[in-house]
Amino acid sequence: MRPHPFLPLLALALALPACSDARKGDLPESRIRGDAQLALGRRTFMRHCHECHVQGGPGLGPGIIDKPLPAAAIKTQVRVGASTMPAFPEAKISGDELDAVVAYLGVLKREGVPLAQR
Amino acid sequence: MTCLRRSLLPAALLAAAALLPAGCFVLRPNAGGSQTSAADAKATKAGARTINPADVSLPAGYAIAPVATGLTYPTAVAVDDAGTAYVAEAGYSYGEDFAPPRLLRVTPDGRTQEVARGDVRDGMSNGPWTGVALAGGAAYVCEGGVRDGGRLLRIDLRSGAVTTLVDGLPTLGDHHTNGPVARDGFLYFGVGSATNSGVVGPDNARYGWLKRRPDFHDVPPRDVTLAGVNYTSDNPLTPDANDKATTGAFVPFGTPTTPGQVIKGRMPCNGAVLRVPSPQAGDGGGGGATTRPASDLQLVAWGLRNPYGLAFAGDGRLLVVEHSYDVRGSRPAWGTGDLLWAIDPAKPPLWHGWPDYHGQDRMADNPGHYRPPGGEAPKPLLANRPNDPPAPLAYLGVHAGASGADVSRSEKFGHAGDAFVAQFGDLTPGVGKLLAPVGFKVVHVDVTTGVVYDFAVNRGKSNGPASKLGTGGLERPVACRFDPTGDALYVVDFGVLKTDADGKEHPARNTGVLWRVTRAAR
Question: Does A15 sit within 8 Å of B20, measured CB to CB?
Fold first, then answer.
């Protein structure tokens, strides 16, 4: 089956924001500590994601709180991996932990205020 | 349009998911924090640096101010009970620039007075001096040892007399003797590995030492049995550009190893944290110190690539900041963030995974994570692991250059119990490639959860050293240390160190700064 001619353009359009260097950052501590899922998401993020996506921003990998991909796409990427990004199977990040990471990233994207811009 | 969206969306999402990191990483040039053009790097003048505390962002209520400027490669600070700061200048920078290592006293008006200096012979010092601790009217300084091997020095603060407590440490290579910290009658210090990942290669010639010391290599403290893995590389020790050499682990360049070969452990070793009894009143020698025999050295922990920052937590655990692997040499490793460990010095010494593990991951078992683009994951060098590596306390950014650390103990300053870690910042492209600068700031880490928080960062829409951002903020924070009250955090800023497209380092003298962070009364 031939791919639809719009598919590469759409994929490219979605990929471009990942190349942005925009920084996001800290959430108010009370926002995290009062929410068990966000707290789990942050711990999981710090263990598995922070190395390459420092505080959600770019580093070895692209920024991950500045792209329009929905939760399903993030989860797919985490599970499947791609090229330089490793796959994280259930044994490394459980389903609950992955849900929590996505929730944490969503809140960080919406509400995070980079320290550098305060 | 609705129909099109429905039919394409899942595939597009998958395609985008697949394209995001690959497309960006492979296609984009290195965008780390230090790389500039060769012309720009060479044009950076000694002392050319703007200082502006307003360009540094801190959490609300904190303030930062420069205490001393114009320093040459400062690496460490300690503050006495009277509030006087002592700063160590390294006397060496990557880029093979040698200057006299010095211990400086900082006067209240920001001027510096030289207390002591290391010698320079044939244009080389034995630096870098990497740390300073104060105790009993003396400063204890770790001398990196690029010329003669690492040393632990005692410097009398009144006379400036220098006594060698420990010498002959095997740190003639990539990494140096680091620390020290004093605790419970001991001086603790780190001894960095000779190589990136256990195998001497052409990268070590680029760093300068392989041609000076072709027989130098890593030394374990305990017997290790090798898997017999060897790597064939260009041979920079001969003029023939086509000459190759085959090298195994824990042996000199050009020496192959065999399966089951045992490398005898010995002290002093490298890739480890060691301790030695502190000088006591009544010891022989000037100021109560003499050179200690190797038998006085005690192993605290090993299997650590470059244990740089050392600090004691309130519960008595030794926090150790480890520089993780680079993407260089015969055995590059990809995607390894710097690590923060918590080590109980009262327990038997544990192996922490180097050169086969990153944290608790054996790299060969996780090739998707640790394989450099276009390469292979590092093969196991050891036939048997000495023990299961413990879990790191926290994971920091890849190539962040996480360096000196201290622990807050003041409710007035805040974040009591957290570890503060200075991040030197990346040295790409010599150590790997990045999509954005990493490091160049001070973070604090909740040692109970491993959560990392930015603390002092440069203002702006992107991260990076002040020279890249065009501001007067932080350049390369390399150490942070609280004063005895715990109410002020001193941050040592190494100064400008740029790299060119070939990975060559270009440091600039007289650009180092000592900063001081305080918090307004609440």
Answer: yes
3-class SS of residue B446: coil
Condensed to tens digits (0 to 9), the pLDDT of residues B24-50 reads: 677 788 999 988 877 777 777 777 899
For B22, the closest of A12, A73, A84 (CB atoms) is A84
Write the ipTM.
0.91
Residue of chain A with shortest Cα separation from B399: A60
pTM: 0.92
pLDDT digits (tens, 9 = 90+) for B453-501: 999 999 988 899 999 999 999 999 999 999 999 999 999 999 999 999 9
- What is the distance between the alpha carbons of residues B327 and B371, in angstroms, rounded to a whole number? 9
pLDDT at B405 > cutoff 60: yes
Contact criterion met (CB below 8 Å) for B56 and B459: yes
What is the DSSP annotation of B366-404?
-HHHHPPTTS-PPPP-BSS-SSPPPPPSEEEEET--EEE
What are B276's two structure tokens? 């030695």
Q: A60 and B17: CB-CB below 8 Å?
A: no
Residue A25 has pLDDT above 60, yes or no: no
Count the neighbouring beta carbons within 10 Å of the beta carbon of residue B315.
10
Residues 65-94 of A with CB under 8 A from B: 67, 69-70, 72-74, 76-77, 80-87
Beta carbons of A115 and B23 less than 8 Å apart: no
Q: How many CA atoms lie within 13 A of B153 on its CB side?
A: 31
Residue A22 has pLDDT above 70, yes or no: no
Are A15 and A57 in contact, with CB atoms under 8 Å apart? no
Residue A9 binned pLDDT confidence (cut-offs 50, 70, 90): very low
For residue A84, the chain B residues in CB contact (below 8 A) are: 21-22, 25-26, 334-335, 373
Q: How confident is the model at residue B248 (pLDDT cuts 50, 70, 90)?
A: very high
Distance CA B151, CA B487 (A): 32
Q: Which residue of B has its CA nearest to A14?
A: B16
Return the number of other C-beta atoms located less than 10 Å from residue B65's C-beta: 12
- Asked whether B198 and B215 are in contact (CB, 8 A), the reply is no
pLDDT at B210 over 50: yes
Question: CA torsion B461→B462→B463→B464, rounded to 10°?
Answer: -110
Q: Write out chain B residues lying below 8 Å of A8, CB-based.
A: 15
Q: B13: nearest CA in chain A?
A: A73
- C-alpha–C-alpha distance, residues B27 and B131, integer Å: 40
Q: Which residues of B fall within a CB distance of 8 Å from A60?
A: 335, 397-399, 432, 434-435, 438
Q: Mean pLDDT over residues A1-26, rounded?
A: 40
Beta-carbon count within 10 A of B461 CB: 11
Which chain B residues are Cβ-neighbours of A71 within 8 angstroms?
none
pLDDT band, very low/low/confident/very high, at B1 (cuts 50, 70, 90): very low
Q: Which amino acid is at B202?
A: P
B29-61 burial, b at 16+ Cβ within 10 Å, e below that, comes to ebbbbbbbeeeebeebeeeebebebebbbbbee
Residue B20 with chain A: CB contacts under 8 Å: 14-15, 18, 62, 67, 69, 77, 82, 85
Query: What confidence score (pLDDT) does residue B23 get?
Result: 54
3 state DSSP class of B196: coil
Question: A27-68, pLDDT tens digit by residue?
Answer: 777 788 889 999 999 999 999 999 999 999 999 999 988 877
